[in-house]
Specification:
By secondary structure, the chain is an all-alpha fold. Helix content is 62%, strand content 0%. Helix 2 packs antiparallel against helix 3 and helix 3 crosses helix 4. About 5% of the residues have low confidence.
Amino acid sequence: MDYVLLVALVIAVIGLGLLTASLAGRDRREHRTARQLASVERKLDVIIAHLGIDLPREAYPEVLALLRKGEKIAAIKAYREQTGAGLKEAKDAVEHMEREPVEPAPEPRPASEPRPAPEPRPASEAGPAAEKQPAAAATAVADDTAEPRPAAAKQPATDAAAQPSPGE
């Protein structure tokens, strides 16, 4: 009887050890993934800043409504639920929204309406990559947006000079 209890205790200890090791491994993977994601976000922010793109901030109507009512804690809670952000990040974002309210996003354009052509940037603002780009590549991009042209029919060469003679 004592042996059965001892074996059960040993199995429980081993199981607890395996469970702890499994949870620790998962935490390490989650931490590594979070670090990689933060690194990618930083790189993306640098690229966006370098290209001079101004991204509109996302509006959270529920959060903004709670802020207008003066319910800051409820707004932070709503922001966390909507974004999955941590407490500090949510608090900072809500305080930023409180200082600089976000304007609602413009209405989406219908799919049938053509997209406006992007404004060309002067060469001085385009950066070093644009200076190295050959003119042919720029026209190739413009040709890609044009309607496809029918393929030219191949015609056999009838010029005797163009065809090699059998003795050559």
